[in-house]
Amino acid sequence: MSISLPPRGRGTASNPHNRYAPTRSEQEDDGWYQDETPQSRATEVRKEQAKTAITRNNSPDVGFDRSVNPYRGCEHVIVDKEMYGQSV
């Protein structure tokens, strides 16, 4: 008899009944959890003519008044908005 080990990080492989437990549970497939592969979306790259790459900051809590940020978009923000049903 071979013992099957559970996949790492997934809990126990079985739930044996305990004769002292007041309740018993059985696993039932109700279709709620389905292994679906998420649709992958390609990253869209657009060329943009920016006026400047230097951003000015006039805030007393930041120790500098200029910074360089060549990136305009932020890919994880787009994913978050799509996850919550907001249009981008």
Task: Give a description of the structure.
The structure is a single chain. The protein has 88 residues and is low in regular secondary structure. The chain has a domain at 54-83. Helix content is 10%, strand content 7%. The chain contains one helix and two strands; from the N terminus they run ββα. It has one helix spanning 75-83, and strands spanning 54-56, 66-68. It has a two-stranded antiparallel sheet. The longest helix has 9 residues, at 75-83. It is elongated. The relative contact order is 0.08.
Short recap of the structure:
This protein has 88 residues and is low in regular secondary structure. It has one helix and two strands; from the N terminus they run ββα. It has one helix at residues 75-83, and strands at 54-56, 66-68.
Task: State the secondary-structure class.
Answer: little secondary structure
> What's the gyration radius in Å?
26 Å
Report, as a whole number of angstroms, the end-to-end distance: 56 Å
Oligomerization: single chain
The number of distinct β-strands equals: 2
Order of helices and strands: EEH
Tally of helical runs? 1
Strands of the widest sheet, in order across it, are 1-2
Largest β sheet strand count, sense and barrel closure? 2 strands, antiparallel
Helix content: 10-25%
Query: Which descriptor suits the 3D outline?
Result: elongated
Report the sheet-strand fraction. 5-15%
- Overall pLDDT level: 71
Low-confidence stretches: none
